Amino acid sequence: MNRRNWFKNITLGTAGITAFLTGRNLFAQQQPRQRGQRQGAGQRQGGQRAGQPSRREIVKYSNEHFYKDGKFDEEVAKAAYLELFRFHRYSLADTVINSDDFWMLEFAQNDFSNVGMGGIFFVNDKEHRYFGHEIYLLPGQMIAEHFHIPGEGLPAKHEAWQVRHGQVWTVAQGGNKSALPFELPASQDKSFTTCFDAKELNVGDMDFLRKLEEPHFMMAGPEGAIVTEYASYHSGDGLRFSNPTVKV
Question: Of 160, 162, 157, whose CA–CA distance to 233 is shortest?
C-alpha cells in the first residue's frame, strides 16, 4: 500500500488493539548486593559510584546516521526507536514491531534527528469517530507544526496526549519564541513555526488541543518520549502543515 495513503487512512480494528494490549512494560530489577557489601554515600546500588554516568543511556544520533546516499533509511530509524523502547523498558508485541503498522516519518525535511516521529495507529474508526495512536519520539525530536481542519465530511480532529515514558512539551499558539525551553530545529526555525506557548509534560501528565483547527506541535525531551494520543477520527484530508515543504 502507498505509504502516504496508508498513513493518512489506516484503520485497524480489534486485532490492532489486541496486539497493543499484549505488550507490557518491563520494570528494572534491582541487583542484589554481595554479602558484606556496604552501600555508602559514594556508591549506588549495583556497585556504581555517584558521579559516574548511568549504565542506562540513550543516544541522540546525528542526521548522518539516518541517511544513506541522501535517502532516509527506515530500518536504521526503526532500530533507533527500538533502542528508545529498551531504554524506557517499553514493549510491544513482535507482531506489531515487525509489521508495516509500525511506521516512521521524516516529513521530507532531511532532518530526522530533529524533526520526525514514529508511531502506530491502533484504531482509526471513521464510523464511530474515535482514534488510538501511540507516538514515539527520539531525544529532542519535534513533530512538525500542523493543524486539523474538517475532512471526509467530518468535523476537525480533536485530540489529547498522555506521556507514558520520557518528557515532551506540547506547544500551542501564543507565547514568545525567546521563552521556549528548547531550541527549534534550524529546518523549522523560520516563519514556518508560529507556536511558542510550551507546556511541559512528564510521565502521566496530559494535555489537550486548546482550540479546534489551531496549529500545534510536540517536542521531546533529552530522553525521548512515548506518548498516547486519544482523539476523534484522523482524516488525512484534514491534515495541514505550517511548513509548506513538509510531506507525509
Answer: 157
Residue 170 has pLDDT above 80, yes or no: yes
Q: Are 102 and 93 in contact (CB under 8 A)?
A: no
Taking the C-alpha atoms of residue 12 and residue 15, their distance in angstroms, rounded to an integer, is: 7
CA distance 200 to 229: 16
121 part of a folded domain? yes
* Residue range of the domain that includes 234: 3-22+60-241
pLDDT at 222 over 90: yes
Mean pLDDT in residue range 176-200: 95
Spell out the SS3 assignment of the chain.
Answer: CCHHHHHHHCCCCHHHHHHHHHCCCCCCCCCCCCCCCCCCCCECCCCCECCCCCCCCCCCCCHHHHEECCEECHHHHHHHHHHHHHHHCCCCCHHHHCCCCCEEECCCCCCCCCECEEEEEEEEECCCCEEEEEEEECCCCEEEEEEECCECCECCCCEEEEEEEEEEEEEEEECCHHHCCCCCCCCCCCCCCCEEEEEEECCCCEEECCCCCCCEEEEEEEEEEEEEEEECCCCHHHEEECCCCCCC
Residue 48 lies in a domain: no
How many structural domains comprise the chain?
Answer: 1
The candidate with the shortest Cα–Cα distance to 200, out of 167, 159, 225, is: 167
In order of 17, 90, 135, 187, the CA distances from 98 in angstroms are: 16, 16, 17, 31
CA distance 154 to 82: 35
From the number of C-beta atoms within 10 Å of its C-beta (0-12, 13-18, 19+), residue 74 rates as middle
The pTM for the full model equals 0.79
The set of cell numbers assigned to 229 is 494520543
